[in-house]
Please model this.
Amino acid sequence: MPLVHHAQREVTLKVVYYGVGLGGKTTNLETIHAQTRPDRRGKLVTVNTEAERTLFLDFLPLQLGKFRGYDVRLHLISVPGQIAQDSTRRMVLRNVDGVVLVIDSQADAIEGNNYGIRNLDYNLRQQGIDPDRIPMVVQYNKRDLQGVLDVEELGERLGVPEGIPELVASAMEGWGVFETVKSIVRVCMHQLGDPGACQDGRVECLLDEPRDRFYPSGPVSMIHALAPEHELDLEDLELVTG
Model:
């Protein structure tokens, strides 16, 4: 649920990066943090344990710019992929506004990817959230590696919902990462609409209908995640890098 503050003219979105362990969720946030101007982002906080560097979570606050006169802020969170940390994943999904499902494009990651998708579906339902209506994009990560599966094959084998925005990326090399952020923000802000017309506080941001009817069908390019009829006027909503 986006948090709308009329007094501060501010909208805060919570976006969770979900997926298989070591699939690139943390690397996405590290790249965003490294390539965003210091005055536009907060500190990247990683909660570590001895067993896994992201066994708990990563958190990155990010300031995007203005949308219809309101400052847009993101809280980006990556969650652990380990089975033992399921309670943490459920906790992080509370009041989530959008999900980036990070897919490891390597052939030997199919089983882990499948588990991640099923687990996301289950944990969203545990929070009372319809998985078919939560704003979501899929990022096929690690496209820089040799021998990765074709995006079309990955989508078919993993049962990616029809029409969901699909982006290709290499979080390690840094391409496709910001396009993914822009894509999920566009979906969330499209559904939110005019912040000035919303109530103060948390606002429901589920899609009006299941995503196979909300989104255009088929995979999309790295940048244009929505069909023209769903495009927002986001000229003043740009990630500030450099």
